[in-house]
Amino acid sequence: MTRTCATGWTSCARLFALHAIEQDRGWFFEHGRMTGPRAKAITREVNKLLSTCAGSRATRFDAFGIPDAALAAPIGISASSG
Known about the structure:
The protein has about 80 residues and is mainly alpha-helical. It has 5 helices and no strands. It has one domain (about 5-60).
């Protein structure tokens, strides 16, 4: 795996983890595990990682060998984009 590829997958893994924390931040607040500034920092990092991961999504699709025809199929297109 190339360094660029590994960095891209690491960014996506971080995005997944931080998004999960962001979604459950109410629990973290209730149990004294998160502060307001930390929650805002997590949201900023999620937004930054979203743009990073979105820029390289075509490369990740190519890594799985998914044909373009399958990606263009109705099931592969979200309802919000059409």
